[in-house]
Amino acid sequence: MILSERICLADKIQRLKRRTAETVTESFFEKHPDLSLRYGARWRELTIEDAGYHIEFLAGSIVSGDEVAFGDYLRWASKMLEARGIAPAYLAENLEQIERALAAHVDAVEHRAIATFVRAGLAELTEELESETARSGPGLALSCSVYVQAILRGDRRAAEAVVAEAMRHGSSTMDIYIEVFQTALYEVGREWENGKIPVATEHMATAITQTLMAQVYSKMSRSTENRGGAVITGVQNELHQIGGNMVADLLDANGWDVRFLGSNAPHAGILAAIEEHKPNLLGISVTVLFNLPELCRLVADVRSRFPQIRIIVGGAAFRSCPSLWREVGADGYGPDLRSVLEVVDRIAA
Question: Which domains can be identified in the chain, with CATH numbers?
Answer without folding.
Answer: 3-218 (no CATH), 228-347 (3.40.50.280)
